[in-house]
Design a protein that fits this description.
Elements: H1 2-10, E1 50-53, H2 68-80, H3 82-102, E2 108-119, E3 134-146, H4 153-220, H5 225-240, H6 242-259, E4 282-285, H7 288-294, H8 296-317, E5 322-331, E6 345-354, H9 362-428, H10 434-468, H11 477-480
Parallel strand pairs: 1-4
Antiparallel strand pairs: 2-3, 3-5, 5-6
Amino acid sequence: MALTALTLLTSCAVGPNFKKPVAPEVKGYTPSPLSTTSGTMNVAGGEPQRFLSGGDIPGEWWTLFHSRPLNALIERSLKNNPDLKAAQAALSVAKENMLAQKGVYFPSIAGSFSASRQKTSAVISPTPSSGALYFNLYTPQVSVSYVPDVFGLNRRTVESLNAQTEQARFALMATHITLSANVAAAAIQEASLREQIAATRELIAISTNMLQILRTQFARGSASRLDVAAQESQLAQVTSTLPPLLKQLAQQRNLLAALSGSFPSQGLAEEFELSSLQLPQDLPLSLPSQLVAQRPDVRQAEANLHVASAQIGIAVANRLPNITLTANAGTVALAASQMFAGGAGFWTLAGTITQPIFEGGALLHKERAARAAYILAEEQYHSTVLTSFQNVADTLNALEQDADALKAVAAAKDAASVTLDLAKKQFQSGQANYLAVLNAEQTYQQAMINLVQAKANRYADTAALFQALGGGWWNRADLTKDSN
């Protein structure tokens, strides 16, 4: 006991003590600060968006789109998605392994009992004091073993496993955020495809009508065969764009079903329309100093760096002496009724110290490998931080360009609408033929497809911004309840 107390008082954990990396000293995400995007009047989804520096990300950021079907689908996905459940199980595995390693801090106690029937040789001294050749032997005993953590081998091992638990915890958060963002992106894409398909079918109908008119004019001699062939080619080109859109829509539906934990054959109740979504106008923008604490991938890289630091201590401790204390106590009796009689007891106390002397340089090279692994983890951490800032900057620039693109596309749509109105009036007054009207309608429908795509880009990149900023996991009780 005195030896144990002395070793615990004088013990230390060898190897470096982990220091949390400091946040990058940058003041913004882009060379020029962004405050408000441009807006487009009289267009749903064309509202200007304001970036609120220092704003907090809500834990359920998707509710800012004000779509009940989207809210329901994401919540169902968060309950049923197998990848998320696997990440939850991985966290439980890591946590239990860490708690199991903590058990090494305490003595190991085991009880045993053996009963045997024996016969000794008559030519040697009899084993029992009675001289009997045949006898029973009953041996109950308790064994205690304890390994004092003199050089911190177990403490560094627990530290490493605790950091691995943090890795698993932030992997769960990353899976949660990625899942919700993927569902939102797929729903937005589905809504976009629906409107593109509707517009494409209108284009096919217009082109078919134009072809019929040209064929009639050709029969009357007022149109050439070249005009008919050109329109046939145009119709074929427009028609060929419909099957890929239908394929993409089916794939998006299948993706949404899989993300929500369902089979494609089970169908999906929700259908999405861009008109049912509201564009969030006030976008919280975390401070750059907060981003490294909010991004799960950065926190995973930090935990991996912590693991590498602890592994150095483990490698160093494995080269140092190891002390084992053991105690054994019990009784030996010839009859079960005599097991606890006086004089039947025995005990043993022992201490062992083991110092590695020669292992062919294996332990030295393992330590060097652990130090190199720390450098590797450190550079991977820096790379992850740079990527996280790049993601935010890319998304901010995308939102700015999306707003400008929507404005330009909306202007093109308005111009096509004016052209269509003029063509209709000229046709009604006899100043133009119906072919001019159909051409104007075709241009208008193509402008509508471009407008749908531009609106969808704004919604999708808005969701991407919430993901790039960390997804607000720190504001969800179900993700933070086990963080301490």
